[in-house]
Design brief:
Chain lengths: ~575, ~450
């Protein structure tokens, strides 16, 4: 192995003089008294390696010894990752002692002594390649597939697979042989470098299946699909994290990977306090049982923050190759971009816009491209749906991270300060936001065949109502209440009705927090019907009170269990109010 | 911080800038302390045997032959119960004429709390201010800044909160504090008769700005001692974080770093997070709550300092002058406490959340009505009523001179709702309405 000597230290950038070959992104360990600090090579200049250290470099001196590992930053993959809380380098945080994190302490992401109930899926004589399933073990409620390591991309023939029974992850569960006849023993563990995508699938088609999030402003107006990508930019205080937590709780996925990247520690605490208590409506199990948290909070070392999103994505790819529907959430990708900026600055690279590195758009695009819906070699499907938040500086949507992400992600849910100020949550701007998936014919067809034949028409009508409402509101503000025709008030209040009943959702109400699709359809149809009705008013002053009472009633409907007595009661009231002013 | 035996001494500086100098030296560790010509300095960059030091007091008058003495350890603070009731400078040296502190020497800027060892903050801190207790309830273990223009009485409000908050220790970190404000705090604490609960680390405008960089870490090291070792509830006051950031930008500028937005260093977010994330609720009952001041320029919250702060802290409290009542209020629209849902309606009355939201919505409507009025339009009957409501709401609840309990705040809201509005206009759930609408 190559060795080196520390020559320079600038915060967490450490210059190392090496005595042999090293490679870009190789991991090395810097000896500091009795501990070793993990670092990654990010630039090589002659005999000097520029490394970013994943820890504080306090006390480090020129002359300290460095050992290179010969591999890039890797994750260790195998059964037992569900419900774990990892740091950005996949250390199991629960295995660390003490209140405070210790420098140089690295813990095993898997539990090597755990016992798993193995069932073979392959048999002797089968021809397999990297990512093919050899067997499975039940992990929580997921059938965790034991796969031929992804790095073994040639064809291998299975020599033997152990019979069903209980095994440790380190036990050999299969033996395969390559075309030279060399035998390889396979256990339940494999490693993979996080910066390299796992490509053990046959093809990646255009995604088409809706992924339900339970959030009306997303599912109804600007839906995301299984294997799709989306991002949520918004100034602070607009509810990015609340919205993302909502998606993570109610998103219709087999499992959730949550990368808390450079954000507040108390928000992560919220997840691991609440998720073990909350039921997953689909399986009846606890939400934590389908969740993996990668936690690199804002006060943890900056370089590990950059690694954390890759660690999360690689774990997602591992589970996707088992044929699972994975939802990956990252909060926030801006912090990751800032980590890149800090390093770029220390290396004295020429800066791009706002001092971000020039290749930021490329890095972001490559990362988003790792999501997707795939057909595996055995014909099953799997998906990674990726939703990232962006925290634009000063709330400015023209800043580099938003611009770069806009080019990569297909759904854009823009959080608006004004909506947040008037407590219209989720504060997703219904007009600026978009979902490119609504342009896909296959998505439209899927929506109309699974929700209702006229669904996409309803949605596009709803968007028109909102846009017309905004336009008339501007006119009313310019010309005054009595300076515009009465119909302007009606048009505006119709959009307010749609806004309040469909777009706004009370995340803290038990019923309203998540709305299933059939209910979303029922309510949208109801609201659109009202929007299409003609009403009789004597003066504009009658318009607002009338719609206020409609809104009041329909909010009660949103809070009531679907089709319950209460729900039907309020609905009957609503019909009465409508009848008062409706023009037949 | 006294020098120790067997320290290497260097006397040849290669480079001197306004805040840094470099010297050829070996065996020096990163972040280590040193003195340069008797002034305290810290290692910020090492390339081979060239060591760059940041001199806290500035480099005025430093000669190329200045004596450089390395300490072999990073900045430390001696912690013990003796800290209580004392005033220190940015280096942790007493400035109140009292004796030196005896205790364990701890490195400042220590490691982060393991996130899985944190407890969810859920203990309410009552302040008597409706802008906080009613609309933006603050809890122990939270970090929240007061955002104010320089003309707002932010230090006064901060002292109010600190004194009413019933903390075991209040630790003040003054950064670029004017001498007058320093004396104000000192007197406020003395008058309240709680001087033995107070610890202060102060860098005033008379001291060099770069020294400020040590203050938050001194404060938080002391806070961690009391919160971890003694399981105490510690309230940390940091004023003014904008001046702290200014010091950061001075140093980064002297080190030829490429500035990002608003001439601030690209690492501003991480630098601030390192401080604010020290706010924590420990499982054993100790906690660190951080209340900071960020002064704004003309209310501009998009400037890099408030902007980065907003992304780190758990909300912000906006001070503004309400011209209708000629008083300073905590702005209900711009302010936010992200942890309020941990206690509202759980540790407080069940109608809390609904009442708060309804009142804020009406206050927002009043803002719209005001705009209409300014544009010369007629006001509707509803507009007239929300304007009256917002006047009463500001005067009887939001003004910072009001000091009442949360139940009284809620009752006042209900009283105002019924005075000006119908049930439909309030729009609160029927079940809650039945109980409180009389």
């Amino acid at each position: 192995m190559t060795k080196g000597i520390v020559r320079g230290i600038i915060a967490n950038l450490v210059l190392v003089e090496v005595d042999g070959p090293i490679s870009q992104n190789e991991i090395c360990y810097i000896q500091l008294k009795d501990i070793k600090l993990m670092a990654e090579v990010i630039k090589i200049l002659g005999k000097i390696a520029y490394t970013q250290v994943f820890e504080s470099t306090r006390g480090l001196m020129p002359g300290n010894e460095v050992e290179f590992s010969g591999h890039m930053l890797e994750v260790k993959l195998g059964p037992g990752m569900l419900s774990k809380i990892y740091d950005g380098l996949q250390d199991d945080l629960n295995k660390m002692d003490g209140l405070f994190l210790k420098r140089g302490e690295y813990t095993d992401p898997l539990d090597e002594n755990s016992i798993w109930n193995f069932t073979p899926l392959a048999k002797a004589g089968d021809v397999v390649t990297g990512g093919d399933w050899l067997g499975e073990v039940p992990e929580s409620w997921i059938a965790h597939k034991i796969m031929l390591p992804f790095g073994m991309t040639e064809n291998y023939s299975v020599v033997s697979v152990v019979p069903a029974g209980e095994y440790k992850i380190t036990d050999t569960i299969a033996v395969v042989k390559d075309k030279e006849g060399k035998q390889h023993e396979i256990n339940m563990i494999q490693t993979w470098p996080v910066k390299i995508p796992i490509r053990a699938y046959k093809e990646k088609p255009r995604p088409f299946k809706l992924l339900e999030t339970g959030q009306r402003t997303i599912d109804t107006l600007n839906p995301i699909v299984e294997g799709g990508t989306g991002f949520i930019p918004g100034p602070f205080g607009c509810g990015k994290t609340v919205l993302q937590h909502g998606i993570s709780k109610y998103g219709d996925a087999d499992m959730i990977i949550f990368a808390a990247c450079g954000e507040r520690a108390n928000e992560v605490v919220e997840i691991f306090v609440e998720f073990p208590k909350l039921d997953d409506p689909r399986t009846g199990r606890k939400l934590m049982e389908r969740t993996i948290i990668i936690c690199n909070t804002s006060n943890m070392p900056v370089a590990a923050r950059e690694a954390s999103v890759y660690t999360a994505m690689t774990i997602a790819e591992y589970y996707r190759t088992m044929g699972l529907k994975v939802l990956l959430l990252a909060d926030s990708t801006s912090r990751w971009a800032q980590a890149l900026r800090e390093m770029s600055n220390r290396m004295e690279e020429l800066p791009g816009p706002d001092a971000f590195p020039m290749d930021l758009p490329a890095i972001i695009s490559n990362f988003y491209a790792r999501a997707g819906y795939v057909y595996l070699n055995n014909g099953s499907t799997g998906s990674i749906t990726f939703i990232g938040t962006v925290s634009p500086a000063g709330g400015n949507l023209k800043e580099p991270v938003v611009e770069a992400t806009r080019k990569a992600a297909r759904c854009f849910w823009s959080l608006e300060q004004r909506r947040a100020n008037s407590k219209r949550y989720p504060a997703v701007d219904p007009i600026d936001s978009y979902s490119k998936y609504l342009e896909y014919d296959e998505v439209k067809e899927y929506l109309n065949s699974t929700i209702a034949p006229n669904w996409t028409d309803l949605v596009s009508y709803a968007k028109d109502v909102l846009l017309r409402g905004r336009e008339t509101n501007e006119q009313i503000n310019i010309l005054g209440d009595d300076g515009v025709p009465l119909s302007y008030h009606v048009t505006f209040m119709k959009s307010e009705l749609l806004d309040r009943i469909i777009l706004q959702q009370n995340f803290f109400d038990k019923v309203d927090a998540a709305t299933p699709l059939n209910r979303q359809h029922y309510m949208l149809e109801k609201v659109i019907n009202i929007c299409m009705m003609d009403f009789q008013f004597e003066s504009f002053e009658e318009v607002k009170p009338f719609f206020t009472s409609l809104i009041y009633d329909m909010v009660q409907m949103n809070y009531a269990e679907f089709n319950s007595e209460e729900f039907k009661q309020v609905e009957a009231d609503l019909e009465k109010i409508l009848a008062e002013r409706r023009v037949k | 911080m006294a020098t120790r035996a067997f320290q290497k001494v260097y006397t040849k500086l290669n480079q001197v800038t306004k805040a840094t100098c470099s010297v050829t030296a070996t065996g020096v560790g990163y972040d280590e302390l040193a003195t340069v010509g008797g002034r305290l300095a810290q290692v910020v960059k090492i390339i081979n045997d060239s060591v760059t030091l940041q001199i806290f007091e500035g480099t005025e008058g430093i000669g190329t032959d200045a004596e450089v003495v390395f300490f072999g350890y990073p900045p430390t603070l001696k912690v013990s119960d003796q800290l209580a009731g004392r005033f220190f400078d940015a280096y942790g040296n007493p400035i109140d004429g009292g004796p030196d502190i005896e205790g364990e020497e701890v490195e400042i800027g220590g490691p982060s709390v393991n996130p899985v060892r944190r407890q969810q903050p859920s203990e309410l801190i009552a302040t008597g201010l409706a802008g906080i207790d009613l609309n933006n309830t603050v809890v122990t273990g939270q970090k929240i800044p007061l955002w104010a223009d320089p003309d707002q009485p932010y230090n006064f409000v901060m002292s109010l909160i600190a004194l009413r908050a019933k903390a075991d220790k209040i630790i003040l970190g003054g950064m670029g504090l004017s001498n007058d404000d320093y004396l104000f705090f000192k007197q406020a604490f003395e008058n309240a008769g709680i001087i033995d609960k107070i610890i202060s680390f102060v860098n005033t405008t008379e001291n060099p700005p770069v020294e400020r960089l040590l203050v938050p870490y001194m404060v938080l090291t002391a806070a961690e001692y009391f919160a971890v070792e003694k399981n105490e509830k510690v309230m940390v006051l940091l004023t003014d974080m904008t001046l702290y950031c200014d010091a950061l930008s001075i140093v980064s500028n002297r080190m030829d770093q490429i500035p990002s937005k608003d001439s601030m260093p690209g690492s501003l977010y991480s630098d601030l997070a390192k401080i604010y994330e020290k706010a924590v609720q420990f499982p054993e009952g100790g906690s660190i709550t951080i209340l900071a001041v960020t002064t704004l320029s003309g209310g501009d919250r998009t400037h890099a300092i408030p902007d980065n702060t907003g992304y780190i802290t758990e909300g912000q409290l906006f001070l503004m002058r309400d011209t209708n009542i000629s008083k300073v209020i905590v702005d209900p629209i711009g302010s936010l406490s992200r942890l309020k849902q941990n206690v509202q309606g759980k540790k407080t009355r069940a109608d809390h959340v609904d009442v708060m939201n309804a009142a804020i919505r009406l206050f927002t409507d009043a803002g719209n009505a005001k705009t209409k009025l300014e544009n010369g339009f007629d006001l509707s009957d509803y507009d007239e009523r929300v304007l009256k409501f917002s006047h009463d709401y500001s005067l009887r609840l939001l003004a910072i001179d009001v000091n009442i309990s949360i139940d009284e705040m809620l009752d006042t809201c209900w009283e105002l709702f019924q005075k000006y509005f119908s049930k439909q206009e309030i729009g609160i759930k029927e079940t809650v309405m039945d109980k409180y609408w009389k």
